Amino acid sequence: MRYSALFGKTIKDAPKDEVSKNSKLLTRSGFIRREVSGVYNFLPLGLKVLKKIADIVREEMNAIGGQELSLTALQNKESWQKTGRWKTFRALMKAKTQLETEYPLGPTHEEVIVPLVKQFVSSYKDLPLYLYQIQTKFRDEKRAKSGLLRGREFLMKDLYSFHAQEKDFNKFYEIMKKTYKKVFERLGLDALETLAGGGTFSQFSHEYQVITDAGEDEIIYCPKGDFSANAEVSPVKEGEACRLGHGPLKKSKAIEVGNIFPLGTKFSDAFGLTYKNKEGKDIPVIMGCYGIGISRVMGAIAEVHNDAKGIIWPKEVAPHDVYLIGITNNESRIKERTDEAYDSLKKAGLDVLYDDREDAAPGAKFADADLIGIPIRLVVSKRNEGKIEFKERKSAKSELLGLEEIIKKFKA
RNA sequence: CGGGGUGUAGUUCAUCGGUAGAACGCUCGGUUUGGGACCGAGAAGCAACAGGUCCAAUUCCUGUCACCCCGACCA
Q1: Within 10 Å of residue A63's Cβ, how many Cβ atoms?
Q2: To bridge A91 with a disulfide, which of A139, A233, A399, A411 should be the other Cys (CB 3.0-4.6 Å)?
Q3: For domain A320-411, which architecture applies?
């Protein structure tokens, strides 16, 4: 991609209404732009990141037998009345047609998936079943805030599991814990598996919390990593020893980037979702749900991985592999050499953002490279004597390498 | 939803009862090229919206809307 053709330029000053670190950085660097409060457009660079996050999640869901589908955002009011949530789910947005018919705008999808699954599941042979989607959700937050961290429209992965036996559910719940750990590692997030309340569904649930002052939750956790609980439900307090005798426990603000939740038979009961066991008896299906806020993850990464100059994207979610700069000058062949490097890198399968602006001062290019935060920066310049400067965004050091060596480095 | 604050050019901000100005960005010309470079010339605004006061309102008053912050809320 040539920078000169890229839609979405960087800006020096963030709009004054973008106050949170993540939205400031993502707006300045041309990844997102706010539409209304709590609702963001994703520009090409931002969408690339969003897709990479989604793809990692998708891969891991597929790996444990998840089947992807896509459920509607515009939902069925009757189903929500059946579960009682038409009245009790405060953040439910309701859309009205010209004829005054009301539709819930999906904040979550139990009311859609359970009736759907009921049409296909009737025997123990149909279970277990793991269905997920990555889809836009709507929640009528009384106050949207913190950029991508709490919006009214956001992208979320939700998986629903259906089981014949409690035992089977428990086994899968543990698999999900491992899977979530792996997902967040790949996303470059240090997410603590945190014990949380179960709301109206169950006694407990688990949240995946990333420590940051921008977060809204408070967690009590052991710095050695063997305990973490949401402060709302934690029986132990800051400063005490954890269950393995480590200590002292710490208290921090954190942002919830995922959660997993036993649903029991609450929704199966509401919709009469049962299966026939071997004796021909109807048994309610046991369910679990498992969410990851895709757009919130993007915000959390920007919130946590940055420095004074801009974002520092983890490799797996970066919008491009390389930011290529040529420091041109009319007399030398720098422009040609940079063009050649661009072509070679592309041929080698790398996704390159080539800053091909001819009249921009070198400083402007460096500043944009740092702000956008692509993990590797390459500089072609007459100063580098036929080699290319290779620099990691996260490091202050750089080295001069040949093109072949650089390509080899990426393959490794 | 309670409290506080803000709406002026794409962005950040000035102005102030006499109908709008800078910087950045943008366009054109020229000079530049290792940390947001320089010179010159331009384009760009229904001053959120509606009403009121006044000879005259971006400016004062009222209302509405939007946005931000704190709190409450967040299956």
Answers
A1: 10
A2: A139
A3: 3-Layer(aba) Sandwich (3.40)
A32 CA – B47 C1', rounded, Å? 27
Find the residue closest to B6 using CA and C1' atoms: A17
Euclidean distance between CA atoms A107 and A138, whole angstroms: 5
CA A360 – C1' B41 distance (Å)? Answer: 20
Domain A19-307: give its CATH architecture. Answer: 2-Layer Sandwich (3.30)
Q: For each of chain A's 412 residues, which pLDDT tens digit applies?
A: 999 999 999 999 999 999 999 999 999 999 999 999 999 999 999 999 999 999 999 999 999 999 999 999 999 999 999 999 999 999 999 999 989 999 999 999 999 999 999 999 999 999 999 999 999 999 999 999 999 999 999 999 999 999 999 999 999 999 999 999 999 999 999 999 999 988 767 789 999 999 999 999 999 999 988 899 999 998 988 999 887 888 799 999 999 999 999 999 999 999 999 999 999 999 999 999 999 999 999 999 999 999 999 999 999 999 999 999 999 876 678 999 999 999 999 999 999 999 999 889 999 999 999 999 999 999 999 988 889 999 999 999 999 999 999 999 988 8
Nucleotide at minimal C1' distance from the A331 CA: B33
A111 CB contacts (<8 Å, ≥6 apart)? A75, A76, A79, A80, A82, A83, A85, A104, A267
Question: Do A222 and A239 meet the contact criterion of CB atoms below 8 Å apart?
Answer: no
Give the angle subtended at the CA of A363 by the CAs of A358 and A367, to the nearest 5°. Answer: 105
Nucleic acid strand B: bases within 7 A of protein CB: 1-2, 6, 10-13, 24-25, 31-37, 66-75
- Nearest nt (C1') from A327 Cα: B33
Q: ipTM of the predicted structure? A: 0.95
Contacts of A97 (CB under 8 A, 6+ apart): A103
Task: Report yes or no on whether pTM surpasses 0.95.
Answer: yes
